[in-house]
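Hello,

Our lab assistant flagged a job as stuck in the queue for most of the afternoon. It eventually completed. Since we weren't sure the result was trustworthy after the delay, we are filing this so someone can double-check. Below is the sequence as submitted and the structure that was eventually returned. Let us know if re-running is recommended.
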Amino acid sequence: MARTEPDIQALWAEIARLTEAGELRRLSGAFARFVASLDAPAAPPPALVLAATVLSELEGHGHSCLQLADLAEGPATLLGWSEEQWKTLATAAAPLPRSAKAWAAQLGACAQVWQVGEFDYDEPLVLDGERLYLRRYWRDELLVAQSVRERAVARRAVDAPAVREWLDLLFASQRAAEKPDWQKLACAIALRGAVGIITGGPGTGKTYTVARLLALLFATAPQAGSQRVALAAPTGKAAARLKQSIDKALNELAERVGARLPLRELTARMGAARTLHSLLGARPDSRSFAHHRGNPLEVDVLIVDEASMVHLEMMACLLDALPPSATLILLGDKDQLASVEAGAVLGDLCHDAQAGLYAPETLDYVRAASGEDIPPDYAGAGGPLAQQTVMLRHSRRFGGPIGRLALAVNAGDAAGADAVLREGDASVRWIDQAQPQQLLQLAQSGYGAYLELLQAGPQGVHDDWVRQVLQRFEAFRILCAVREGEWGVSGLNEAIGQRLEAARLLRRGGEWYVGRPVMVTRNDYGTGVFNGDIGLTLPDPARPGSLRVYFLEGDTVRSVLATRLRNVETAFAMTVHKSQGSEFRHTVLALPRERSAILTRELVYTGITRASEIFTLVTPAGEVLHDAIARRTHRASGLRAMIAR
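-- returned structure --
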């Protein structure tokens, strides 16, 4: 028997209470009311209201769908709630289905829910088996799954002996530290398909490998060097680093290949690396792009670095705009934090990367095309995508304490992480039971190098001085796990500014002042700056009294008048999420005092791997670190199931 309108008021009241308490986004309750209104004047089933609320809330936590099994068992952990909070909300909606199957049956009967396979009336919610979606995320997941699977099963004719000859030449100077040479076989595997995924931690040589893959693609094309190549990354800084690394590697290879391949000419022809937004032709104040299936990108090879940062919607737009004939190469560390927005696409695509699961046909091809034998431990019955995925397993940069710390955290080994942190090595330091003043002292010491150069002023060419100031600033960074509080980005940025001013290293006279570091928080196509870009505020030499914000991309410096930048925030400290795609000589990771669902193994690992030479961990309470190492990120998704289907 359907409830009457007054019967559901207890549920609406509990949703309102949780919203006012800050446990629910206002958007979640508003979305539930919108869904409920679509079948008015009939009273909405409480199960539907509850499911719509939870689904919307989980979207804010990065989940692309709601697994009905989680709903049946109680999604308190996913929501970051206590069991008591969930029980109170569920009681207000009782009686509720007790199994995923029962939830699917009840939701499937609602007019606001479309079940895949039935006639589609454009309902806002989609029920795909035992997963409930917001329609746009179901559409995005389906597009990514279909496109990736089609590309994974596509095979191109490969002259294996010719490929091996080229690979032997391109990797001639490298003595692999272990067998097989995963970098070499990654090139062979990527060459034969329309998609290739290369994953691995810092120092495993992802860009080193893809530079050789590019040379191989140029060399084996029907017309040497005829491919149109595009390089892209989620942020401007990551794009600039990708271009710089590939150019350097290709120019070094040019000496080796000599006249056999005009590699320097082909390298110059590639053009600059771009952000994904710029590549696709983002339109201001719109979710749509200039490039899509009806107006595809004019590329033959697309290389995307830092793919772990690419969220579900962006990946769907990218694949929609990529011609079926083009080759897509994704580079990234599957163990890093996923995007802030919904989806964990690279993690889903690399699900079998650790195990390999290479089929006999792949083993035979790799042996013929690269001369490498994949060990039997990595053979198996993996799906089509596993055959096009390679995990690079040997780090050439992280062999010391920083690398061992990252490996321990990634393995969930809290005792091993403690041991590395307490070794006393100069490259790794742990300040436990820390007070805020200790972090502020670190900030004063770390930022002193750029502030001293700033105070000295230009001694020669202005652009050279700007470049040096920016490079010194980029050598040190404080990373935070949270935004609010004295251990968060907001509190620390203000406290650091005050500390530097008190030390007479800065003179803050308002919102804009010389030496202020800023992060762009929203794409601005008019000024050419993008979300995540970081710059420094310096005097404008052409206009005395005016300030410009200077941005460093590789060795290139560009600037924008400070008064033209509307969406920025001070960036002495930044979140770990925003630091992805960056690397700092000395990285400080500050964890908060309180335990939280957002403190995860992936967050700590990502923070550690931003450091190239020195890593400092600052914790007001050491148990917060152990709790974070024990907690893995889980994002509900149907992408792997869709690819398999």
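-- support follow-up --
The delay was a queue issue, not a problem with the job. The result is valid. The longest helix spans residues 236-257. The CA atoms of residues 37 and 44 lie 8 Å apart.
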